[in-house]
Amino acid sequence: MLSVRGEERASVVLAAACFFFVFSGYYVLRPIRDEIGAIGGGERLPWLFLGTLGATLALTPLFGRLVATLPRARVATWSCRTLIACLCGFFVLLRDPTSAPAWAAPVFFVWVSVFNLFAVSLSWSVMTDAFRGEQARRLFGMIAAGGTLGGLVGGLLTGWLAGRIGAAPLLLVSAALLECALRCMRALSARTAAVAGE
């Protein structure tokens, strides 16, 4: 924290908290995704990874275009709210595994893999607006540490909650964490705009 100047502290805390919540939310989902991937003895894994590659290739140009043409705060809001809506939809589909459609589990596997890529990319795009080049060199290491801590907490949270509430409700926990990340992104964007105005 020695390299953080007084006027930067609030922005660094918001940015690190954003990464904390993004990674916590992902690490809550990861064990569920891995369990789905292990079903069938791993024979489906090549197809699941191929589906992940296809979805990433299809969505990356669209996401890049949105980030390049629209304000980051608006893209962050739309993207995070879409991801949260997807998590709620998967909760409805997967809460009773016996009645879940056959396509739900593999689609969830691919979705979680793509979710991680886009949630992290979105967070970094907001950070690059908030911090100039010199600031980024000094501060991004500390900000990224928030993600590392979030991964640890997310894993511990999953281990603690899985036996108490089951796997499907963890999707709602992840959605709540993603909403927290969005609030941090929006607060950081608002702070960046205020500082630029001053």
Oligomer: single chain
How many strand segments? 0
Overall, the morphology is globular
How many domains? The number is: 1
Count of separate DSSP helical elements: 6
Radius of gyration, whole Å:
18 Å
Ranges with pLDDT <50 over ≥5 residues? none
Helix coverage percent: over 70%
Sheet having the most strands = none
CATH class type? Mainly Alpha
Assign the CATH topology.
Answer: Growth Hormone, Chain: A
β content, as a range? Answer: under 5%
The helix-and-strand class reads: mainly alpha
The CATH architecture category equals Up-down Bundle
Averaged pLDDT, please?
85
Order of helices and strands: HHHHHH
Topology:
Blueprint: H1 9-38, H2 45-69, H3 72-94, H4 104-130, H5 133-165, H6 169-197
Helix pairs in contact: 1-4, 1-5, 1-6, 2-4, 3-4, 3-6, 4-6
Report what the structure shows.
The protein is mostly helical. The chain has one domain: Growth Hormone, Chain: A, CATH 1.20.1250. The chain is 84% helix and 0% strand. It is built from 6 helices and no strands. It has helices at 9-38, 45-69, 72-94, 104-130, 133-165, 169-197. The chain is globular and about 55 Å long.
Q: What would a concise description of this structure say?
A:
The protein has 198 residues and is an all-alpha fold. The protein contains six helices and no strands.
